[in-house]
Write a structure and sequence with these properties.
With 283 residues, the protein is mostly beta strands. Helix content is 4%, strand content 46%. Strands 12, 14, 15, 16, 17, 19 and 20 form a 7-stranded mixed sheet that branches. The chain has a 5-stranded antiparallel sheet with strand order 2-3-1-6-7, covered by helices on one side.
């Protein structure tokens, strides 16, 4: 008696993304999911907007480029920018017992990007893990002086122009200072003003900006640079009276000879806010 051949069996192979465990090495990972409960394959998020949650780590990302740089003069706050190959999506930066979910993500023809915000301690660890320097800030353009000025008398209803004159002393080093970047809108929001009329505060008008074209202008030793703003875009100054205006203007300085927007020089900045008071009369 001949035995019947066994029926052929079809095996279905289901492929699932590889998940990293909580013991995975430090680095950048794709985020496979977030849960409120810990598990054997989750990593606790200890910093950032999702602190307290637990992330399931996907495949590890091999960055094509990484930059770690300070975003404030105290060097307490740093940004980590990672570029990598597609697919794009959220990521997790794992640093020992700490982990942070990306606060920004993007993609273009050059690949994908992830952005993380860290304190100085985590930034130092991230720089070590990613094999890049931590770019900290140092004082630049500290000797540049700024003076606000306004006309002493203005006809009622006429515009009031406030000028800021930046002056680099003759014995100082040449520097670059940033212009634009906050003026795509009704006004240049590098300026800010608090206005008082006859001793009483004048309501401040809000106006948002959408950034704008920006760049750096060189300020040589002994050179002056003037920037101006129409005060009426911040407050009503058409009413007759005596005005006192507290003025502020913020800009970034960078050394001459570099391109401040290049990745190798993102930490070569120093933010300064110039302040002053002007007085005038509207008749």
């Amino acid at each position: 008696m001949r035995s019947r051949p066994l029926a052929s069996l079809t095996l279905a192979l289901v492929l699932v993304p590889a998940l990293a465990s909580s013991q995975s090495p430090d680095g950048v990972y794709r985020r496979a999911g977030v849960t409120a409960r810990p598990g054997s394959r989750t990593t606790p998020i200890t910093h950032g907007r999702r602190a307290g949650a637990h992330a399931r780590l996907g495949r590890r990302i091999r960055p094509r480029r990484a930059v770690v740089y300070a975003t404030d003069n105290t060097n307490r706050r740093h940004h980590v920018d990672v570029r990598h190959r597609p697919p794009c999506g959220d990521g997790v930066l794992r640093l020992g017992a700490d982990a942070v979910i990306s606060e920004s993500r993007g993609g273009d023809s050059q690949g994908c990007s992830l952005g993380f915000t860290l304190d100085s301690v985590l930034a130092a660890r991230a720089a070590s893990v990613l094999g890049v320097p931590r770019q900290d800030r140092r004082p630049i353009g500290a000797r540049v002086r700024g003076a606000f000025r306004a006309p002493s008398r203005v006809p009622a209803g006429a515009p009031v122009t406030i000028e800021l004159v930046l002056e680099n002393p003759s014995g100082a080093s040449a520097v670059q200072h940033q212009v634009g970047g906050r003026n795509r809108g009704p006004r240049n929001n590098r300026f800010d003003f608090a206005v008082r009329r006859d001793g009483r505060p004048v309501a401040r008008a809000d106006a948002f900006d959408l950034g704008g074209i920006t760049g750096f202008v060189e300020l040589a030793p002994g050179e002056r640079y003037t920037v101006s703003a129409e005060l009426g875009r911040w407050a009503d100054v058409t009413v007759p009276g005596r005005y006192v205006v507290e003025c502020a203007f913020e800009t970034d300085f960078a050394p001459v000879g570099i391109r401040p927007f290049e990745h190798a020089h993102l930490g070569d900045r120093w933010t300064r806010t110039f302040r002053g008071t002007v007085r005038f009369e509207v008749r």
